[in-house]
Design goal:
This protein is mainly beta. Helices cover 12% and strands 46% of the residues. The chain has a 12-stranded mixed sheet with strand order 7-8-9-10-11-1-2-3-4-5-6-12. A hairpin with a 2-residue loop joins strand 3 and strand 4.
């Protein structure tokens, strides 16, 4: 379940939700496997953000674990009764995948790819149009709306600058090297840390839609402790 990167900087800035929601398979992790010694001893999270993702006729909920201003994020899912978790650490360029509970918890660490591949970066001559949409209140936060379109795709998204946490720090290094279209850059100011609360992407060629919707944002303290896992 992965959104096509029509506007890669847009998708990256708003934390590439569907790409991250697709847990990497074992073969992918094995191909980039690293020694567990490079994994930090712990990752602390203080917030849980639950999002509903609809794509290809399927609906799923994903729990995102966030620590304010931290360059990492966690995601928890339950697939076929298996408790799975992924930690993506952009500072150390690591993905840590875990599965199981209690004494049966296992993990694997792998080198993570660059968030924006050179070939996927948007160029200044791309014909995108942007327009502001009426504000909405989502999860109690006042949200600004933007519609971004090109010949093949329309993306409508709503974001707030008032949430206590965001994913801005996570993708800061990728955004620093991305070429942002001039029209898009005017919507965001330096220092802003927006959190996306809703997005819908429509493929104009076939009508296919992928949507994301924030369901809840609440405090929940959780610590990933490396010593509790048996690394493969």
């Amino acid at each position: 379940m992965k959104i096509k990167a029509i506007i890669p900087v847009l998708i990256t800035f708003f934390f590439s939700i569907t790409a991250f929601a697709q847990m990497p398979n074992i073969a992918s992790l094995m191909a980039n496997k690293v020694d567990p010694s490079v994994v930090p001893e712990s990752y602390v999270f203080s917030w849980k953000y639950v999002m509903e993702i609809q794509s290809d006729g399927k609906t799923m909920n994903a729990e995102y674990l966030i620590e304010k201003d931290a360059p990492y994020i966690g995601m928890r899912m339950n697939q076929a009764g298996n408790q799975m978790m992924m930690v993506m650490d952009t500072k150390n360029k690591l993905n840590i995948g875990t599965i199981g509970q209690g004494a049966q918890k296992m993990a694997m660490a792998a080198k993570s790819p660059e968030m924006i591949a050179e070939a996927e970066k948007p160029t200044a001559d791309k014909k995108y149009t942007f327009k502001s949409l009426p504000e909405k209140t989502l999860l109690g936060y006042k949200c600004k709306g933007v519609e971004a379109s090109d010949a093949n795709t329309t993306i409508v998204f709503y974001y707030t600058n008032d949430a206590p946490v965001s994913f801005a720090e996570l993708f800061k290094s990728s955004l620093a090297t991305a070429k942002v279209p001039d029209a898009f850059s005017s919507y965001f100011k330096p220092g802003e840390k927006p959190l996306m609360l809703a997005m819908e992407m429509t493929d104009k060629t076939n009508g296919k839609k992928t949507s994301l919707k924030g369901l809840s944002l609440e405090k929940e303290v959780f610590t990933f402790t490396k010593s509790e896992y048996r690394f493969m």
